[in-house]
Write a structure and sequence with these properties.
Elements lengths: L1 H7 L12 H22 L3 H28 L6 H13 L3 H25 L1 H8 L4 E5 L5 E5 L8 E4 L9 E3 L3 E4 L1 H4 L5 E3 L4 E2 L4 E2 L4 E5 L7 H14 L5 H26 L2 H11 L2 H20 L2 E3 L2 H9 L2 E5 H5 L5 E7 L5 H12 L5 H12 L8 E6 L3 E6 L2 E6 L7 H13 L2 E7 L2 E9 L6 H11 L3 E5 L4 H11 L3 E3 L4 H12 L4 E5 L5 H6 L2 E4 L6 H6 L2 E3 L5 H36 L5 H19 L14 H33 L6 H35 L6 H24 L9 H25 L23 H5 L27
Parallel strand pairs: 11-18, 11-20, 18-19, 20-21, 21-22
Antiparallel strand pairs: 1-2, 1-3, 3-9, 4-7, 4-9, 5-6, 5-8, 10-22, 12-17, 13-14, 14-15, 15-16, 16-17
Helix pairs in contact: 2-3, 2-5, 3-4, 3-5, 4-5, 4-10, 5-11, 5-23, 6-8, 9-10, 9-11, 9-22, 10-22, 10-23, 11-22, 11-23, 12-22, 14-15, 17-22, 22-23, 24-25, 24-27, 25-26, 26-27
Keywords: ATP-binding, Cell membrane, Membrane, Metal-binding, Nucleotide-binding, Transmembrane, Transmembrane helix
GO cellular component, one term: plasma membrane
Main location: membrane
Amino acid sequence: MRREQRECVPERPVGRHRVDWREWAPLTLLTLAVLLGAALRLAGRRGAGDLVWAAVTLVALLPAAWAVLRQLLRRQFGVDVIAVLALAGALVVREYLAGAVIAVMVATGRALETYAQRRATRDLRALLERAPRQARRRTADGRIEVVPLDRVAAGDRLLVGPGDVVPVDGTLDAAATLDESAVTGESQLVDRGIGEQVASGVVNAGAAVGLRATRSAAESTYAGIVRLAEEATARKAPMVRLADRYAAAFVPFTLLLAGLAWLLSGQFVRAVAVLVVATPCPLLLATPIAIVSGLSRVARRGVLVRDGGSLELLGRARTLLVDKTGTLTAGKPRAAETVVAPGGDRDEVLRLAASVEQLSPHVLAVALVRQARERGLALAEPSDVTEEPGRGAAGRVDGRRVRVGQLAGDPPEWARLARERAELAGWSTVWVSDEHGPLGAVLLEDPVRPDARRTVRRLREAGLTRLVMLTGDRPRTADQVARAVGVDEALAQCSPQEKVARVKAESARAVTVMVGDGVNDAPALAAAHVGVAMGATGATASADVADAVLTVDRLDRLADAVEIARYARRIAVQSATVGMGLAVLAMLFAAAGRLPPVGGAFLQEGIDVLVILNALRALGGGLRRRDVPPATRELLDRYAGEHARVRDVLGRLRDTADLVATRPEAPECLPALRETHRRLTDEVLPHESAEEQQLYPALAGPLGSAEATSTMSRGHVEIRRLVDRIAAHLAQAADGPLRPDQVPDLLANLYGLDAVLRLHLAQEEEDYFSLNPADPAGGPGTDGRAGGESARDRAAGGRADEKGARGGPGGADAHGAADDGR
């Protein structure tokens, strides 16, 4: 077992990188040679010293001249030409010390560039180093065999040993403790339960655990990340775009000034002095250091950017086009409400539906089963299960023939109302029926990501002036999501071709970013200046053409990337501008004969040190979001988890309000009202009180002020007031039925409490729980049965737009997500 584990886990520890002395050898040797020349001069051997300095100059000149020549043959013109002319001019006028200093300067630039690139791509290389090559697969007779990763297929049963990297996306056979830091950036270990989806690339930090593969290695999450990392590490640290834009004006100006100085004074040494102080190290050093620092920082935030050119464009972007499904929304349906026939039981309807759907891989079936398990329902083992494409699934559960999918025949009145409610809300409907007719329906929604609205606000603050949502969904649903997240415009029912056309139109007006996750988003991502793919969802087609990939399923990391890109670009421009400004000033003094080549060389070194120190500021700063302390993160996790229970009470609250509204005289009305009040008192109010006392004070630091939670505190007061009003009505009713005069005010309190609680929970998840750098809490559901959905559930497959619809063309009745037209 130990031998097999070593085969599955990379031998080189991730994060350990030895210093490559070959990177610094040229600089070290040239520096020693310059010092040797100085020592010879001090020893009175002037000729020998000059000879050493001339050799240093020549050693630097030859490779630099060859590089410039190759650029010119490719019809490229960059800033290196100034350094070549300065080195050659120093030799011509016998300013050997100046040439040697320039040589050291150029060698310093190359060494720093190589080091900065290696440092910036360290996180990317770590991904490559830890990529598994083999997997342990269970055979039919129960043995464990080690097989190459490309032989693993969906459905295979694997064994993931302690310390192993999870090789493919799959579902756990048992509870496991995982280290997801390499994929999500989350440093804390996380616990996953049996049946939960796990993305490839995470590390098993506990005991060996079984895994059922849901994707092959090539289709898994980690494979797409590794492909991107390979491309990113293969590319040179790209300072060229920014530096050469400056060079287009700076190089001709330098040559013109040097020529004028020589022409007007008749002294060639003045031209050399101008070239020496014009050596563009602020461009060759500061610019790449700032850009690759930005690349490194965004990689640590879970965003892989292909190259610095893409990062620079991201820092200049003014327009954002964003797909809806899977980007602004979770991309996976979840149960929003369960509607039952009069006298029916919600839990029983959900249990029957989930029991039938246990064996189905369909995205909606997964949502139903997850919903039932979260409710703690005991699922039965179905028999005689059949599945008809376009219609749904059927099976026998506890002796009853249960059908899950479309509704056959004319619906009764309650079912017609449920269908209308789903259509108004833009939800999908899954009907549950038996031999006698419909028992109920589960209404499914694609919830807006809790961090979506905050991300949109941060993007506006970062400088994006136009944000547009593109979707293939219906206009009603598109408008609802657009209002929820705060974009400027929503374009509904867009085909992939229309998305590409819109991207091209926006790109013609400003630097444009396109964000998407589905296969049909790939053409639009490729057409944008910067295409950003939600790679954590496993959409490899979009990730393969994108310029950047979010490896963690959080939209707010996009805002992190934009803020870091803008900051890194601002530092790069600032360093280059200040450095060149000082160089131009020195060039004027050199042209006037006030600055000899040697003095200019040392002055240029001082300018270089200044701009390099300024460029290093890009290693930190720029992010508007404050870090959340670990203790506060634990509180956020705790109270986010409690929201599922609060929403369950909300579902009962709505049922009770409907009962009071329709049958206040019914004998079951008052007991239901008392039970709802008991749960409000025992479960909801203690939760709100604990938040007030523990969570809100802890959020004062990350939010900047205790006043930031004052609105939520006012919501707590209103919730308690409404609960107390319900208690007063119960006291008046005693053991008798509700009086007719009580019903209007009681209904106002019940429905008012329902609305206030829903809004309060949604605001907390958007404004507070999305602060947690770990998985954000799931968005609010209508009856709260689903609770929060974590990124781990979304990351390992089952996206609505990549599965075949089972319900056929039935609008909201379709047993397939009625979202994005996919």
